[in-house]
Each structure stands twice: as C-alpha cells, then as structure tokens.
Write a structure and sequence with these properties.
Blueprint: H1 2-19, E1 37-38, H2 48-53, E2 54-63, E3 69-77, H3 82-91, E4 96-106, E5 111-112, E6 120-124, E7 129-135, E8 141-150
Antiparallel strand pairs: 1-2, 2-3, 3-7, 4-5, 4-6, 4-8
Pfam families: DUF1425 (PF07233)
Organism: Victivallis lenta
Protein name: DUF1425 domain-containing protein
Length: 152
C-alpha cells in the first residue's frame, strides 16, 4: 500500500511540475492593411521533430531603400496542449531553442560569402509566433535560403 501511495504522490508531483508551462497568447489586427510580398517556398525536411514543433507559416520579401533584399520568415511554436507541454517539460525542450542561418545567392545562383551567413540562436515559447529576418549583404544578392535546426 505504501508503494501505491508513493507512486501516486510522485506521479502527481511530476504532473504538477510539468503541467505549468509558459505559453503565449496573441491578439492582432483582423483588418490587415499591409500588403506583404509573399514568396512560394520549397522545403527540404530532414528533422521531423523540428517540423512538428516549429511551423513555418510564411516568407515575405521587400527591398530596403538602399536596394538590398530583405527577407522575413514567420514561424510558430506549435508545441501547445497538456501532453506536448508535459513532454517538453520532461525533456527540457521548453522553451524551445532553435538555430538558423541565411545563405544568400547572386543572380547566377552562386552562394555569396558573408559575415551574416552564420548560425544565430533564438528561443521560441510554446504558442509564440516569431519573425526571423535578415538583409542581404550586397545588392548582388538576388535570392536566399534559410536553414533551421534545434539548438544544441
């Protein structure tokens, strides 16, 4: 009987400790006045866990006043709900940390070496929508790719 009570108590403490995770609620303008330049994307997914946690919802581009290509990726941490929160709490994946890197290409499709093409880290809270942005290092850059991975 003591083992049963001990098991129930430890299970209850485990659930109590992992059930209270931070999440994000969001309110936004329902009547959008912006006109983003949405880019059709092509994805190459090798990490299904990352794809299930961080959902890429849009890619926009614009040109800066200096004529540089500017890119914004919108992503949402979709790890919400009781069981996802419990698992993330047990594995230490909450808040979720990712790394990303932009690679820039010239008009011929050749990668442009740049100081901005380094891995950067970001923390994404469950339910949070984030914008990942970068600006091309030169006017010669006409295209881009972004790589995403879980932070180590």
């Amino acid at each position: 009987m003591k083992k049963l009570w001990l098991s129930l108590l430890s299970g209850g403490l485990l659930l109590a400790g992992t059930g209270c995770q931070n999440t994000v609620n969001r309110v936004e303008n329902a009547d959008k006045t912006m006109t983003p330049n949405v880019v059709n994307d092509k994805r190459f997914v090798t990490d299904g866990f990352l794809a299930d946690r961080l959902q890429l919802t849009g890619i926009n581009t614009a040109t800066t006043p200096d004529g540089l290509l500017r890119v914004q990726i919108t992503a949402v941490n979709v790890r919400v709900g009781f069981f996802s929160q419990m698992w993330s709490g047990l594995t230490g994946e909450n808040p979720y940390r990712i790394q990303y890197r932009f690679t820039w290409f010239d008009k011929d499709g050749m990668a442009v070496d740049s100081i901005v093409s380094t891995w950067k880290e970001m923390t994404v809270i469950p339910g949070e929508e984030v914008q990942i942005q970068s600006i091309a290092p030169s006017r010669d850059c006409k295209d881009f790719s972004i790589s995403l991975k879980e932070a180590e």
